Amino acid sequence: MPPAVFRFAPSPNGYLHLGHALSALLNADRARAVGGRLLLRIEDIDQTRCRPDYEEAIYEDLAWLGLSWEMPVRRQSEHFADYAVALDRLDAMGLLYRSFESRGEIAALVTEREARDGRPWPRDPDGAPLYPGDAKAMSPAERVRLIASGGSYALRLDMAKALAHVGGALTWTETGEGPGGQTGTVAADPAAWGDVVLARKDSPASYHLAVTVDDAAQGVTDVVRGQDLFHATSVHRLLQALLGLPAPRYHHHRLIRDADGRKLSKSGKSTGLRDLRADGLPAAKIRAVIGLD
Ligand code: GLU
Fold first, then answer.
1. 64 by DSSP, 3-state: which?
2. Ligand 1 contact, 36 CB (< 6 A)
3. Which of 16, 97, 155, 178 could form a disulfide with 199 if both were Cys (CB 3.0 to 4.6 A apart)?
């Protein structure tokens, strides 16, 4: 059997913190335990927020933790053509449509719908409102006009059509745990995300599309990542089914929280790996700090 393939996939939009250390070390531990490979992927699709110095810092901080990974490192910014191929495929299947509302216009539409219906507009698992617009029903002439006017747009997956295309129920194998304790064979619920954005006029792929394409391109068999991405797996499973890609096993791990119980952020001073290192914390102590044996 070919070796299992694990990956740690940070975004260079800030410095790594203890939560990243847990993810990276768990990936390395699990890979080592099964004689698997460990890959590093730089998720730098959002060119407005990612910076080369943060990428350098990722390499430094991971090396400080004692980790090594296979070269070359895959950088998403070097693979825009792969995402375009996947989008073209979904488009040829009739599963994509363009929506033209700005984020502000979407917020206003949601307020309007809530006033009309007298109840909250449905939200996705991350708490963002499902797409409330009716771009799907737009006349072809109006669409042509809006594209020609040069305005921005989002490329959305038509969730109802996508689900119909797949037909049966989707599941994944979870060896970790979701926020509600879900484990084992988990039923995917992509509909909870509505018509998700897969790309924008100025952005070649959303996180969901890029991560799905990359995991398949790199032959990843085991995704080990934080529980905050548990529900996103439903979208990834759907995209895998639509694009004919294999499904990795998933292991979602607990999140490290700050003293106030909040998820760590990249700007949190006391929990950043660089700051802890500068304060003289030896790398060998990190495992104890994050509760790894
Ligand atoms: N790039 C994502 C992050 O830094 C992780 C993506 C993943 O592991 O699927 O949160």
1. helix
2. no
3. 155
